[in-house]
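As a warm-up, study this chain.
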Amino acid sequence: MAIAKAERLMNLALCLLGTRRPLTKYELRSSIEAYRDAFGPGNASDDSFNRMFERDKDDLRELGLVIETVDGIDGEVGYLARRDSNRLPPITLDAEESAALGLAAKVWQQARLAGAASGALQKLRAAGMPLAGDRDDVEAGQPHSALEPRIPTHEAAFEPLMLACRDRRPVVFDYRKSNAARPEQRHLEPWILECWRGHWYVAGWDRDRGAERVFRLSRITGKVRSRQGKFTAPVPDHVTVRETVERWAGEAATGTARIKLRAGHGYPLRARALSVRELDGGWDELEIPYGHGLDAWLVEFGPDVVVLEPAELRTEVVDRLRAVAKG
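Now compare it with the structure written out below.
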C-alpha cells in the first residue's frame, strides 16, 4: 500500500510539473493510471476520488511542492506546479551548521518529530547538500570523528513539554525533588528545554512560587497535563533562559568546595577540578567550583565522594542521602 501511494504521488507530481496549462482533477483522473484503476467506469464514486485527490494534493504540498489553483474560463478549477516556483535556491552550510543540523535531528529520533526531521535531512541531501557524518563525506576524505554525539530523550515528559513550549501552553505535573520522599504538584508556564550534562531540564514560570524555576525531566513523575489559558508571565529571551538553566543546574559557581574523591572515579568532577592532590588509601582531594545545585550532582556519585568543605554543602549532601535512604 505504501509503495502504491508513493507511486501515485510521484505520478501526480510529474503531471503537475510537466503541464503547460492547468489540469482539472478529472483530467488528472484520466491521466494517472492509479486513479483510472481505482476510479474508472463502474468503480468508486466521484466523492471517493475527490477525497483521495485532496489528500494526495495536501501530501504533496506538505512535502514542499508548490501547487497553484487556477480558475478556468469555463468555471473548472485547474492545478499545476510551475517549475520556477518549485526550484530550490542554492543551499550552503558550513561544517558547524551541518553538524548542528545532524545533531538536532538525532534529538527528534525518539520524539514525535522523528519523521519530519528525517524528511528534512533527506531533502537537503537530495539538493546536493552533504551533512556531517554522511558516508560521502568520509569517502571524500573529509574529517570524521569516531565519536558520535548523542542527546537521548528517553523521558516521557520530553514530548509534551516540547509541544507546550512551542504552543505556549501552561502545564501541570508531579515533581519529586532529590531530597524529598514524595512528589509535589507544580504548575508551570514552560519556556524552553535545555540538555545539560546528559540531563534534560525545562525552564519556565512556576505559578505556585511566583518565580522562575528549572525542573529536571527525570524527576517528573506521572503524566504532564496541559491546561487552558495563556501565560501570565512574560517570556524572556533564550539567552537568559539558557543562563538560568546553567545556574540552577550548578554551572554558575559562586565559590569553591573541597571534596575527597575515590581514585579512578568521578571523571566529570575531575574535568572541572581547579586542583587535584593525591591522598593515601586510594583517594584524591579536589577543589571544584561551588554553585547552586552542586549538592544534587555530588549525591549521584554515592560513596565515591566525601565533602570536606564548606560545611553547608556537606550538610546538604548528607540530607539528600538520608532522604534517598528513607525512600
